[in-house]
Structure formats: structure tokens, C-alpha cells
Amino acid sequence: MVLNGAIVPYEEARIHCLAPAITYAAAVFEGIRAYWNAEQQRLHVFRLDDHLHRLQYSMKVMRFEAPYSMTMLRASVLDLLRVSRMRENAYLRVQTYIDGDGAMGATGPLGMFVSCVRRPPSKLLQTGIRVGVSSWARLADNAAPPRVKATANYVNGRLASIQARQDGYDNALLLTANGTVAEAPGACLFIVRDGRLITPDVADGILESITRDTLLWGAQAWLGQTVEQRPIGRSELYAADEIFLCGTGAEVQPVIAVDRLPVGNGEVGPLAAAMQLRYFNLVSGRDAARPDWRTEIAATD
Ligand SMILES: Cc1ncc(COP(=O)(O)O)c(C=O)c1O
Description:
alpha+beta, D-amino Acid Aminotransferase, Chain A, domain 2, 2 domains, 28% helix
């Protein structure tokens, strides 16, 4: 792990129990993936700077004092990957939080850590998942903005995930208070109707997902298609030919049923499969497009 800028053994990465990070969830984070390309003997960290820019934005909105610089955060991620000698796909968490023992409104002192774990691909990527629309509403922008990747926001996603699992689904979809589709607890969503890709707008209660942005670019580059970004009603989910989730963690995750109704013919659809394949080629550097999105670490580094 990296803790406050220094590499420390996993067991020694501790914070105080009275830190506002714990007592008031004063914490923000990023989940980042690094993909190992065996042919090139290189690790590719995907859209590292975009994740760190979003972290800077989250710290700004949360009014964290003296936020860590891009240079320091970037070096922490890359040093950890080098020291861990990571030679497979990995998932990194970069977290910043209010340390010390202050009150609810404390804006410092700041703490940070970076963790890195191996993350092999999920088998659900091939089979697709079954989701249920949650009875929990997505957070509102004027209450706890979903655009900010704050730890506290995940209370909302956690309630929905637990409910979905207890109801026999793999995952949940959350609607905004207005009843339009927002996102899954940890991923954004695309639907396909008559071959056209549609995704909720950034004002529809979503995190401004980097994977969503990658797929907006990909739809154009790979399919010559401009994705429609607009509100999606709950009942439109049942009319979709295909649905897939997207996120750094979820990657491109086909959805084969919503509320026990099959999506299309109930199998992974062709557009979801194509987007998934192109995405994996891009993030791993097998597809050389968008080199600006990959930070490479060679095995010899
Ligand atoms: C609530 C939520 N929505 C969407 C996403 C997808 O965002 P990104 O593609 O930037 O990882 C995430 C995180 O992965 C998330 O936690």
C-alpha cells in the first residue's frame, strides 16, 4: 500500500478510529484498473490522469484543504505498481480523506492511500447479469451529488445492492426521484433500441463515468454512431433490445434480464459483445488507438 505518500506493508496501513473519514464519511476515492499485456510485457494503467482529475474535483467539492497534487498522486500509483511487480490485471483504489480527530465540518488534515489488488476478469462478463429496479431512489444532485465520488454516496448504492441480492438479482438499477433511470450502484448504463445506443444524460443522477465517456468515443470510432444522451424511463428498459453496464470495475457488463423480464431474447446481445471486445482491446493496448489514455509500465521498469 501507499499511505500518505510512503510505501508501507499492508498490515501497517491504519488510520485513527476518530478520523472524520470514519465518523462522518469525509472521504473520496477513485477505482482505477491496470491491464497486463503479456505480449508486450507491459502494464497499461487506463485513463490514470482522468481518474486523478476527477479525484481533484471530488476533493474540491468536499472542500478538502491543501489537496494532494496530480504529481504526487500519479507517482504514488505508479510507484506502487512498480514495487508490487504487478504482472496481471490489477484494480487500484486511490482514496483521500480527512484524518485527525476533527468535527463534522473539518476540512483537514488530509490523509491518502493507494491500494492495489489482482483482479481477474469476472465470468459474468460472458454470461450477462440479471438486475432489478431498486425501490431506493438515486441520490439527488442538491443533496449528495452523484457526480462527486464520495464514499458517503455508496450508502445509497449499498442499500440497493443488498436489496437486489436479497431479492435474487445480481445487481440493481436505481431510478432518480423523478423516476428516470440513473445507474447501477457502481456502474453506468447503456440501452440499445433498433441498433441505436442510448445512455442517461450526465444530469440524470449519475457519476460522470470515465468508462461511459470511453464508450461514447468508442461508439463513434468503432460503430460510426453518436450515442443519444437523454432521460430513459423505467418502462423503456423493458423495450430495449440490449442493455449493458459500464464502469472501471464492471468493465462492459451485459444485462440479460430486468425485473425478471428478458432483455431482447434474454441472451448477451451483439452490440454489447462487440463493445466489450473493443473495450478490452483498447484498455490492454492490443488496440493502439488513444495512446493518451494508457500509462505504460514495462516489466523492466
Ligand atoms: C456509482 C458509479 N457509477 C458509475 C461508475 C463508473 O465510473 P467509471 O467508469 O469512471 O469507473 C462507478 C465506478 O466505477 C460508480 O461507482
